[in-house]
């Protein structure tokens, strides 16, 4: 695995949704580093990627209420346990659970294992509320997938909070878990 700067030179065989991420980041003038790797489906698989990136990769959890009418994307440190009751109390939504993959695809154009804050660029109807655990913001760099789990990006936290999130048009709600 090798860390490289910016978008791939050869985009052949890459999905449109991944290319849209690079176009989006480039349009904002964001500098980022990228690593290509085998599909990373678990936090354990992400550990080696984390070491190469030298950035904190957080868990990205796609959640919904019991009625499946409210959807949330929660960014939480990878090593922090997630307990729904603590989150439910802070956002005023009981009975949170993981949302079905079809909602993930419908609103974020992402499949399980590829969930990323960058998927919010595909949520044109603003159906998904961005929730960020305050501990995510303590690192200098942020690691995430470009809407596909065979690459990972290293982005400055100040670019995430100062440029990317505002451009996504999803006002984040800070939570403490």
Automatic annotation (TrEMBL):
Q: Which SUPFAM superfamilies match?
A: YbaK/ProRS associated domain (SSF55826)
Family recorded in the similarity comment? Belongs to the PRORSD1 family.
Record-linked InterPro entries: ProX/PRXD1 (IPR040285), YbaK/aa-tRNA-synt-asso_dom_sf (IPR036754), YbaK/aa-tRNA-synth-assoc-dom (IPR007214)
Q: Which domain of life is it from?
A: Bacteria
Pfam families, alphabetically? tRNA_edit
Q: What is this protein called?
A: Prolyl-tRNA synthetase associated domain-containing protein
Specify the YbaK/aminoacyl-tRNA synthetase-associated domain's residue ranges: 37-160
Query: CDD domains, per this entry?
Result: PrdX_deacylase
